[in-house]
Model the fold of this input.
Amino acid sequence: MNNNTNDVTGNETLEWVSFPMKERPKAAVALVAIILVSAFAASTMMGNFWWGIIGIALLFLSMWSFFLPVEFRMDSVGVRKKSPFGTEVRKWREVRSIVADPNGVLLSPFKEPTRLAKFRGLGVQFSSNREEVLEFIRARIGS
Done:
């Protein structure tokens, strides 16, 4: 769902839902297989079924943004990321640099690349709208 509209004040907004599991079914099948094999190996090696369950839970939680849909909304003020775990908001004035890859873009509060950016920045996942999102972001932060 890509939606590029004007809001009540006439400002442009960009809204979409990113759901990588649905968009890349082959990768989803491979990832589920890896998680199940890892869980089986953990329970076998540790000699207890519960280690496999714990492994599945931990691997799922570490990959939640792949398995669960995330809603994004960009407007003239900033970005909103809404997931089952809560809502994150960043204003454009807080974004000092961006780092894009094929699947998303990191909105960083730092001017230079740093390891802290992944913890302090906001990750935005693309759907089928990579160029549209990057163009929207660049127009707002002036880079």
About this structure: The two ends are 27 Å apart (CA to CA). The helical segments are 20-23, 25-46, 49-62, 64-67, 117-120, 130-141.
